[in-house]
Fold these 2 entries.
Entry 1:
Amino acid sequence: MDEMHYAPTVRLCRRRFLHIAAAAASSLGLAACSSNPTPAPGPTTSAGAATAPGSSTPVVIGVAISTTGSNGDTGTYQQQGYQLWEEAVNAKGGLLGRPVKFLFYDDQSDPTTSSRLYEKLITQDSVDLVLGPYASNVTAAVAQVTERYHYPMIAVGAAATEIWQKGYKYVFGLASTTDLQYSTLIRDVIGPLKYSTVALIYEDSLFPISEINGAREYLKKLETKVVLDEKYPPKATDLSSVLTHVRDANPDVVLGGTYTPDSELIVRQAKELNVNPKLYAFTVGPGDPNFVANLGADADWITSPSIWEPVINTPGNAEFVQRYESRFNRSIDYHVATGYSGGMVLDAAVKEAGSLDRDKVRDALANIRLQTVLPGEYRVDQTGAQIGHVMMSIQIQNGKRVVVAPKNLATGTVMAPTPPWNER
Amino acid sequence: MIDPPHAAPSVTEELSAVPESGSGSTAVARLPDNRALRAQQWNTLLPKTYVILLALTVIWIVVFPQVAPLYYVSLALVVLLTVVLGVSWNIISGYTGYISFGHAGFFGIGSYIGALLIAHNLTAWWLAAIVAGVGTALLALPMGALTLRLRGPYFAITMFGLSELARIIVSSWDSLTGGGAGLYLPFLEDRTSNFYAMGILAVVAISVAYLIATSGLGLKLMCIREDEVAAQTLGVNTTWYKIGAFALSAFFPGVAGAVYARQIGYIDPITVFGVIWSIRAVATTMFGGQGTIIGPILGGIVLTLASEWAWAENAFAYQIVFGGLIVLVVLFMPGGVMRLLELRGWIPRTRQL
Amino acid sequence: MTLVQVIINGVLLGGVYALFAAGLNMIVGVMRVINLAHGELMMLGAYTTFMLFSLAHVNPLLSIPASAALMLILGMALQRLMVERVVRQPLLSSLLLTFGLSTLFLGVALNVWTGDQRSVSYLSGSLSVGGLQISVVRMVAFAVAVALTGATFLFLRCSTFGKTIRATAQHPDAAQACGIDVTRVRMVTFGIGSALAAAAGSLVSMMFTFNPEIGQAFLPKAFAVIVLGGLGSFVGALLGALVLGVSETVAGYFSSGQRAESVAFVILIVMLMIRPAGLFGTNE
């Protein structure tokens, strides 16, 4: 009993209707089954790849990286590191005599998007090799894809220990895993200062949780007491309740598992609430050039683990930094260094393998050792986790980052205790 | 209630005056003869067309992953997922008229139930997905009992609040869910089974939507949408029907969430409870035509493919596209594409579409 | 001492919430439009201050009139071009429209400014008052918020146009019958509401870090304030805002930041359940 309204022009013929329906359905099926993929609009190819005239087909390296989204800034640094390496390697004749070309997609810092993009790079764009995205949670999702297709991936932008506990064979770390992040700082800075009470505050997400888990283990060795252990929601805009708890707990050390925005927020609100531990330590944050720029003098005295610093004397570091700053006209960040080093390691692995055969490259990555611009050396254990890299500790002194540990890389000594806010 | 795009004005009349049946009779007798003939033709044609399309879709679901490149299979899975979200949202918001902004909550809850069962190896994955759907529906029952007492806008906002609250609860309960660190699922070599699961889910959801829309149940739901008080006076137990529709609309996203978790292999509260899932459901259904059967399907397919293309060009295209679309639909084409086609006379006005 | 500290923090926070909710209160009162894009208007105000501060080094406090004026215009334009069309339609139309606008603005903002967290570091540190630490920026924000809210209150109470607005809120048809141009009233009200939201945004930019998603984080708070205090009641909304602010900070102190996040939602849901017929006036 539906009320049916018709404009007089609707001609209805049962047979014709069925034909149309069938045609529609089958064309949908045919379109879907088409084996000619439409070229993907919008991926950016790297600029400035130097190719010799009449050269052979380029080696295409696929990357999905966050140039927009919540990690857009940091992802861009890493991408720039890749680009710098591309220029460097092409200037020396490329990989196995062929020029290197990157195929970049923007994954907006979203794990789902990134996985699908890597799948696209591998199955649609048929890239020869891949390099990793930025952020541990994104890499965690992408690792499933690269593992499935047997594409070795250097996890340039990730360090979460959990990634290497999954039994993946094709994922390789570049920097110390998260559980090691605070190792040097706790052992070489907090230990000698003999501080005994620690407050742990960290963002409720993969990377920070992993870092703090590692920190707890190292703190046990020092016989320190953890007087506060509190998580806060990601992208929190107000951390005053956390800081009030910190102030109540009155710790010697505040150890944060942070990213840049929350570390900045903590500093500002700690000042407002007059929270005065003897030492502040944050993971990501102090290493970001924006941190000092945004906080000014309030950034002083703050320590941080560091994966890399522009001032250290690893091979080729100084000219690498200079090349970056003149090319991109901004202060360098350690994510550029990890991106660049990732390229270097891939380069060495391909040379070692003597071909682009991905299983050979994978084996090479598992076995080689080399020095990059990062401190220590590239060396992985049997799960692919990085064990040759050396974590450093820095402290911001008079607006500059000073390496305070380990001794062979140090450019200064740590200053402590931190004076209270109202006495600065 | 929102301007009804797709209900016959005399729905209440229908309910009280004529016994429910599939084909036209007394009401149609008022219309001129050739119209009555066409009405009968549509009436007999549409169900058969649906059956054929259903069969074709099932064939496509089986065949597609075997022949298509894997990237397209993943994309098709997202299309199917969007269709499921839209069709299920339509059941409570389109048919019953209780517009909800909290559909993401069901998706997230189902995701976590399924992921936990799979990660701890408690059951077979497909059973975990079904349990996730049932679990979400069961949770929806008391939720609905409380919230469906609220009228229009307040229901919408409350549902959004509940979805966020669900996210916060899942995030805080880290001993169970891993909190912000997220949950890992076992690594899968071959994910074709997820495509089949999503395909079957979509077919079931559409079939259920069709059966509801063309039956007395659907009539009662639409009656609630049109004029709830009138429906009550006619003896429709609006509370039971609303809550039932609500729970049903929670089942499908629950299952879809579990399959999604298995597909991606790693979930965290922010991703699976993200408001973007609600936006997808609302925008695609409104674009296609809420209250219709085809509307959410059409909207889901078209918009997912369009935003896939657009997003490769522009980072935040999907928010701009979906947001702008909702604005355009509300201002210029309430009732979506289906209503537009109806107004132009290309399709008849019927619950079967 | 610390609990007192926490409560004071909550009161200061409540001031900003009150300013934010005041605008929404007016819009809902006059037009029965539940403006889901209100958070995004606030967000745009925050970014205006941020841009002026970082590009032109404009004192953030001085930028408040600028951001308010900008959103006044935007608000009026939105109302005239879009919201007016759906005013006579059932509530859900305007709800969906503003929902779409909210998503749209969010997408545009993410495109323009990315999702990175920003802040306007203008005032910092705290004042020591009798052993209590009062954050300077929060005090200033509170003062500005109260001033603006108070000014709006007086405007509505005492000025002719303010009375016109209240008349339209009470009974649009009667007001029209009295010769009031209700279309214009609606347009201006939406503009003023947006301006207030923008001012709140400017203050928020100084107090917290923010990114385009902050509008979505704050909107439920505005609703919680309104359902607590009652629609149309300015004083009620102010009290509601204080209750919300204190509840959040106290919850944060006694449990965790995440629970504090949920306070607004809990209040919203509970209040809507207890008074299911709707707190929003009697003429539904």
Note: The domain at 180-306+393-423 of chain A is CATH 3.40.50.2300 (Rossmann fold).
Entry 2:
Amino acid sequence: MVEQVPYINIAWLVPALPLLGFLITGLVYRRLKHNQAGIIASIMVVLSFLFSAALYFVLQASGKDSATVTLFNWIAIRNMNIPFALLIDHLSLTMMLIITGVGALIHIYSIGYMHGDDRVNSFFAQMNLFTFSMLLLVMGANYLVLFIGWEGVGLCSYLLIGFWFKNPAFNYAARKAFVMNRIGDLGFILGIILLFFTFKSVTFSDVFSQAATLQPGAPVITLITLFLLIGAVGKSAQIPLFTWLPDAMAGPTPVSALIHAATMVTAGIYMIARSSILYNLAPITLNIIIVIGLATALIAAIIGLKQNDIKKVLAYSTVSQLGYMFIALGLGAYSTAVFHVTTHAFFKALLFLGAGSVIHAMGGEQDIRKMGGLRKKMPFTYFTFLAATLAISGIPPFSGFFSKDLILSKAFEQNMIVYVLALGGALITCFYMFRLLYLVFFGEQRLAGAHPHESPRVMTIPLVILSVLSVFGGDSNFTTFLQSAVSSKVGEQISHSTEIGLILISLMFLGLVIWFAYRTFVKKAIIPAGDDQPMSYFGRLIYNKFYIDEIYIALFEKPFGYLSDFFFNKVENTVLDPVVDGVGTATSRLGTLVRRLQPGNMSFYLFAMVAGILLFIVFILII
Amino acid sequence: MVFLFYMLSAIMIISALLIVFNRNPINNVIFLIVCFIAMAGHYILLNAQFLAVVHIIVYTGAIMVLFLFVIMLLNLNKAIIPHKSRATRILAVITGGIFFLVLIAATRQTIEIHPRYPFTSDIGLVKEVGKTLFHEFLLPFEMSSALFISAMVGAIMFGKKDV
Amino acid sequence: MKEVSSAIQLIPLDHYIMLSVALFSIGLMGVLFRRNIIVILMCLELMFNSVNLLITAFSAYHSDPSGQIFVFFIMIVAAAEVAVGLSIVVMMKRNVESVDVNLLNRLRW
């Protein structure tokens, strides 16, 4: 960049404003009354959004594709030069707008949802801190600034999941999330180290320009991309590190919406999309990504079929959709993946917020077997939820249709098996989402004694805005917008007619599934059985999430527990404690011994004096 | 002359040993007086006439008499004098012996100092002592009177029944 | 006088040093050895005197008068010190009813 883009220096305001919000609400949180914390936090995020939009126009007006804003010289040791710089290009702008836009809506929604909680001020402080970290992640101009944001969102995720910390099960869930993230982080750090050793720099521009000179399939690139992939797998809840996300539903619903639907879990996808040049040089890793993404998408969707907690269903659908994004990444269609990130942010946030509205209305009840008939009582929630369900199922002209269809057509271009399996996953998705919709909103009200009412306007207005985005937010020209930032693989384009044919096939199957769901849950009004009813073997397998949690506990938690017990009982009690205590006892005994030197009687003192003088003289004589 | 020196030395050392090893304090005082007189003899051998006389007057005449008075006043006799344990006594003797040996060994490494002034034997005479005392050492001489005053005041204060 | 002057140089200085050291260590032995305060003070006087003898011997051999003046001052100080020391002994006898030095054992930690 020879000349700077004018006004680009306001870029630092975008992450700084939520940080300021965090500091204000975090430091004076005892004094803030009522809604003040929420209003301050929301205003900060809204301002961030406006500045991000301004940055978009600034970049557009300058005609450039990207701009770097260096804030200060961070690490400068000999040949390691890492400035603290922000990169503004189309990819980071997209993510910034999503984070601040959807984030602002969720903040406003939380003002209503968390009203009356006794720690509501710290809630908003933590949400702002999260927004700041996420913005730092997407705006970083090198891997290290990205990693700062990466760690920051991990921390905030832990804080927010375990927000109601009085319940030990919630604490366990928060710890689980953090530890699984950490496993991924280890891989990420190894990747960055290897990156630095290979390219002598971690700045994106340096790395990518140097990478172009390498041979595709070089082992070092494959290793780097694999390590980075491990990090993404941990953060974006892919197999095998996905069990933390359903448990993370222990946190308040806005947290699930912001962190586990719209933003944090997409950090992995953003990182891989950003490193698209590296991944294009490592076809082995790309294949691994496809496999992981497919497995995740299918397994999560199957588990979601039998879940009875409204938030758990949405959690598994998030994992499944993330699998789809990974499939897109693995196929080399990076901009498609980011497109799906955008639309998914809209409708998944909407789904979670709507679920929160339902939970709020039902007085905290989350089991869908006890809900029903909310269609008439909560019209706003129902219609927005319907819009989001249609979007996630891929019905045109909703936004989800465009992004999911693009993924399916790219899969069709490359590999038939992938296409068929992905299509199957899409159908399962549609089925369980409509199952959710029908069981919650249709039929008779099953919960006795509840008086569900529509949520207050501060909660419904964000729902409406998000639903508008879900409906009209899909624009396939979006991928060309991203073209300047990510280098997608250009495969052989399928002809237009084939594409129409694919769309028709998928629409047909989707229609069948929706009709089947309608028949099951509305006409026949079949309600899923309670927990104590006998289930078929396969049903039980799915209902218990394929026992993956139990396997992990047996494989990892129990041995570590034994190891730490061993260290505590054997090593600490028999070795370390006596040694430390022994030092103290030895000192005290030494003191007792030395105390005998001052008995008080004169003759001993005289004696000691004479002995001292003798030694002194001898010393002088010898030396 | 040399014989005189050795005899005086023998008297001194024997009486010193007897001081240390005798139980009766009165006997100790007597032996100390004998030792002092022998020392006065040594001073005269060295032609330090002024010092010899002052030594006899001050030490033997004043200080020993003081000791005797105090012993008399305190009414000490052999019965109530406690003794130290055997081990301590042996240790004390050994320490003294080692001290002696170490100091003797130290003197073997001394360097010969050549005298500053030409040799005269007159310096012990009262006239010479007086000259040096009132020329170079006048101030210490006068300050010693202050020392005596404070010693007197201190001794009297200690002796009072209620301070 | 001439005989005196030559007589002084007959006895070598080492003899005086040895004599003085012997007296000093005997006095030291007495200080460590005895439990009667008065006898300890007497042995202290013995040590003083041995030093006096040594300084006088040096002064005679090097014909330096300041040595003898110094001995004079030592005697002055010793006299004052004995006076005060003995009055302390009297006070001790009045308080503790004994002259055993081991009974003064309050000077500890």
Note: The interface with chain B takes residues 603, 607, 610-611, 614, 617-618, 621 of chain A (CB under 8 Å).
